[in-house]
Each structure stands twice: as C-alpha cells, then as structure tokens.
Amino acid sequence: MKTLVFLEHHEGKLQKDALGVLGKAVSLGGEVEAVLLGEGVEGLATEAGKHGASRVYVADDVLLAAPLPQPRVDALESLVNDGGHDTVLFAATVLSADIAAGLAARLDAGLNWDLTDLVEADGRLVGKRPALGDSVYVDVGWTSEPRLALIRSGTFEATETGGTAEVEKIEPRLQDFSLAARMVEQAHEESEGPSIEDADMIVAGGRGLGGPENFALVEELAKALGGAVAATRAVVDAGWYPYAAQVGQTGKTVSPKLYVAVGISGAIQHKVGMQSSGLIVAINKDPNAPIFEYADLGVVGDLHEIVPQLTELVRARKAA
Amino acid sequence: MKIAVCAKYVPEATAQRRLDPQTKRLDRSGEGTLNQFDIHAVEEALRLKEAYGDGEVVIVSLGPERALEALRKALAMGADRVVLVSDEGAAGSDLVATSRVLAAALEREGADLVLFGQQANDSDGAVLWAAVADRLQRPLISQVAELSHEDEKVLGKRQTEFGYDVIEAPLPAVVAVSDAINEPRYPSLKGIMGAKKKPQETVSLGDLGVGAGAAGEAGSRTEVNALSEPPARGETMKIEDDGSAAEKIVQFLQEKKVL
C-alpha cells in the first residue's frame, strides 16, 4: 500500500483531523506520504513527519494561497500519477470534499465518503460508512486504484509518533479553468464571550424555532441553566445567529454535560458536532426527526409551549 | 441566461427507508419525490432568471422513468423544461459514473450556469458538483448561501469551517447552493396545471454518447459489500408532550444529576 494523505491547513496550522487521518494511514501500514499545498507552508512538514509521514510533498505557490479546490485537483492529479499512490485519504471539510470529488473525476477513481473507519480485510481496504441517519453501517470498497476516501470529521485522533519526513518540493502545473474562480474575501468571525466549546450546559436552536426572534427562548433557558447558546448551520446561514455559536461539521465540536436541542432535526452534519455530549435532550414537533434516534430524552411537542415552562422550572429549582 | 439545475429523484422522506439486503442499495421501490435540497437550487435559478429578465431554466436529472412526475414539481414552480436521463444501464452508478452521465447531458445543454442543491437526502452525498465541474472544466463555487450575478460573473458567499468565503467565478460556471439560500416558493395552481404541458424529454445513454461500460456498475469504481448494525448506543427515550413535558425533562435532568 502506498498512501497519500492530503493535509489541510489554516492560518499556519495543520488541521487536527488531517493529522488524525495521517495517523490512521500509518497504522494501516505500507508507505505513507503526505502533501501540503499553499503559500509558505513548508514549515508545516515537520509536524507531518512527527505524525508519521515518511515524505511530504510541498507546493509553495501564490496560486495555491486561497483555499480553493480546483488548482489542488491539478496538483494532486500529477502527484498521484507520478507517485503511483494506490490510496489517497482526506479528512472531510468543505474544501477537501470538493478536491476529492474533482480528483475522482479527473483520475476516474472511486471515492467513498463519510467514512468512520478504514480496515484491511483479506488484503483489501474496506471503508465503514454509516447510512440512513447512522441506522445502518455499510462496508464499502473500491474496484480499482487509486482509492479515494473522505473521512468524517472528528473520526481519528491525532497522535505524535515522533518521526521525520523527507521534504520534496513540487511545482504543479495548474489549468486555466482551475484558476478561473477567485477568492474575493474571507471573513473569519472571532467568537465573543465564553466559548461554547468550554460550556458544561448548551442550549442549541435550529430552524424549528421559526424565526430569529425566537432565539430569545433558547437564550432564556441557557441563562437559567447557566450555559451557553449554540445554533445549527441552517440558522447561522440564514443570519439568525452568529457563526461563532455554530455546532456541527462546519462549526464547532462540543461535548458538554448537557445538550438541549430545540427545534433541531438533527441532520448528520449537526450530529457530528455534538454526539459526544453527556446527555442529549431534544424538543421537536416532528416525531420523525432524526435527532430522536440519538437523544437520551426526546420530547415531541411544541417548543413554544415547552421551552418557557422548562425555563421557569429550572429557575425555580435553582432558586430553591 | 440559460440555467441548468441538476435535480435528484429520491424516496419520500416520510417513507421507511431501507437498504435492500441483496443489492445493498437503497430500496427505491416506494414513493419518490424531488430531493428537498434541490428545490432550493430550482428556486435560485428562477430568481436569477427573473432578475435577469430573460432566459431558460432546464432541470437535468438522472433517474428512473417515474422520476418525471416528481420533477414536474420544478416545472410547476416555473422551470421551463426537463431533461431526464433514464437508462437501465445507468442503474447503480457511483460518483464517477453519475458525474460522467450528468456532464454529458449538461454538455448537450450548454448552460451558462449549472446549479446543484446542497446534498442528496438519500445518500447524504455532497460532492457530485465538484466531479461534474471538473468534467465540464468549469469554475466551481460550493455551499453558496448568497448568490449574485452581474457582468457574466457570479459571486457566491459560502460557509466553511472557519467562517465565510466570498468567491467570484466567470460564467459558464457550476454553483452548489446551501438550503439557507432561499425559501422556495410553492407552485401555484396555474403552475401545477401548466407543468404537464411543458417539454419533458427522456434521453438514453446512447443519445448522450455515453458508452455502456462508462455508466452503471461497469462505469463505477466503488462497491458496497456488506451491511451491518451500527455500534450500540445508550438507551433513548421518546415522549409526547401532554402538557407535562417540561416537568418530565426536569425530573430526567435531576435523575441524571445534571440539575
């Protein structure tokens, strides 16, 4: 097996999930290499070596400065074709999913996504993918090489093994159409107040609230519990609540003692950000909402009735 | 401005979904519908066309014959016509095969803009647009929550793990929209009545020049080998609110010693 791991980085740091995937690749055995694409990223190769990469390919190019997928597909195409990697692994992010799918088309290679494990069975690589709201697990495979895989975020923990990687510079040729899209602006909001990542109690609101004004219900309950307020991607994207409070795949991963989900259907993108919470209580009017499949206590009902009552009872209890 | 919207026919969300133990594929024998996420893409296409004052919105889909009825919802909303690629030889297509077939259908349309919804609600796939954009050799913007168009360019604002990006792409381009981008309209009665009369074309792989070995299982590079139970999780409890739900939650929290 010769594996290539795509290492995503942000503001001079390697992504933890990508290092986790690198560690997994090392544990599967064979030759494990990694690739860093960007501008001024060579310094990150040392850390990749500590996490088990024997060689790190580095492309330092101003055209790779913005985190856009298409030029990265060009770079990986030639790297995989020249390097003969039989497996290419990505930690799933907004960026890497687009890169992996573009590369699959380019190389006519199989891509399996949302994997929560990779194992070797009878000399073949098998991916484990939860399906239908995680109600069933599917063993997926590849019928040709290279095999491409996107690993669900938060799946493998990064561990240092203390190695040193050989650095090899590459100069990828980028295609015109790959450079046609242009990053105009990147707005990275800083969070205000206590971080939801540190909170013991979280009350989260979703689209079921009906409108931004109803976030007051969530805030009141959070205040009564002495906790923080979180939100789903849908309501953040809709502008109801700031991005800093977002929990889920493209937001924060939290593990409070108590997570109260209010008007949240519980799509997989949300679940991955909160499933390790101690206790999950969900209030939703839709009895078929996926969140009821993993909430410790699910309440089917009208949040406008239940949440204010709950806030009152919690206040009374705390005052007692 | 010509806009193509890629839409998928998926099982009804309310239907009990199951994987066929034989084929290990999703059982698609029940009622089907237009993928909810794609309806946002249809809505965005209609808004762009309306703002531009002229143009055409074409729905492009790969699916069984009976998908036509579900795709008519897009026509009822205001889309102009449907092109459905329907072919036994395309059944079981994975990402590489599906993207090849769709790209061939889109090449034939030559739209200025190709729109996708955020994900398929049956397979949870959220990658197809990038494979299609690569095959069409067009610029791509994904996860777009705000889209604008001017001077032969589109500007998309999208969310990533780190905040927001604003990305610009010249037309022709491929854009995948998030479900936060708009509130889709409901089809009017007139729209529903008129939908049946709009052009609905069914094409085969042969019509698109896609060879038999390039689609379906033969054209795919991934396989599903086995199904298994998910790892056990703790007990879950579900109650209906009868007016005492708040009290029951408090009791539960006290039992679990978090309150």
SSE blueprint and pairings:
The complex is a heterodimer of chains A (320) and B (259).
Chain A: E1 2-7, E2 9-10, E3 13-14, H1 16-28, E4 31-38, H2 45-50, E5 55-60, H3 69-83, E6 87-91, H4 94-107, E7 110-115, E8 117-121, E9 124-131, E10 136-142, E11 147-151, E12 166-169, E13 182-187, E14 201-205, H5 215-225, E15 228-231, H6 233-237, E16 258-262, H7 268-274, E17 279-284, E18 297-300, H8 303-319
Parallel strand pairs in A: 1-4, 1-6, 4-5, 5-12, 6-11, 7-11, 14-15, 14-16, 16-17, 17-18
Antiparallel strand pairs in A: 2-3, 8-9, 9-10
Chain B: E1 2-6, E2 9-11, E3 32-34, H1 36-52, E4 56-62, H2 67-77, E5 81-85, H3 95-109, E6 113-116, H4 128-136, E7 140-150, E8 153-160, E9 163-170, E10 173-177, H5 189-195, E11 200-203, H6 205-208, E12 222-228, E13 237-240, H7 245-255
Parallel strand pairs in B: 1-4, 1-6, 4-5, 5-11, 6-10, 7-10
Antiparallel strand pairs in B: 2-3, 7-8, 8-9
Helix pairs in contact in B: 2-5, 3-4
Describe this structure in words.
The complex is a heterodimer of chains A (320) and B (259). In chain A, 28% of the residues lie in helices and 29% in strands. With 320 residues, chain A is of the alpha/beta class. Chain A has 2 domains: 2-179, Rossmann fold (3-Layer(aba) Sandwich); 196-319, TPP-binding domain (Rossmann fold). In chain A, strands 7-11-6-1-4-5-12 form a 7-stranded parallel sheet, with helices on both faces. In chain A, strands 15-14-16-17-18 form a 5-stranded parallel sheet. Chain A has a 3-stranded antiparallel sheet with strand order 8-9-10, with no helix packed on it. In chain A, helix 3 (69-83) crosses helix 4 (94-107). Chain A is elongated, with a radius of gyration of 22 Å. Chain A starts with a strand and ends with a helix. In chain A, 57% of the residues are buried. Chain B is of the alpha/beta class and 259 residues long. Chain B has a single domain (2-214), classed as Rossmann fold (3-Layer(aba) Sandwich), CATH 3.40.50. Chain B has 7 helices and 13 strands. In chain B, helix 2 (67-77) crosses helix 5 and helix 3 crosses helix 4. Chain B is globular. In chain B, 51% of the residues are buried. The mean pLDDT of chain B is 91.
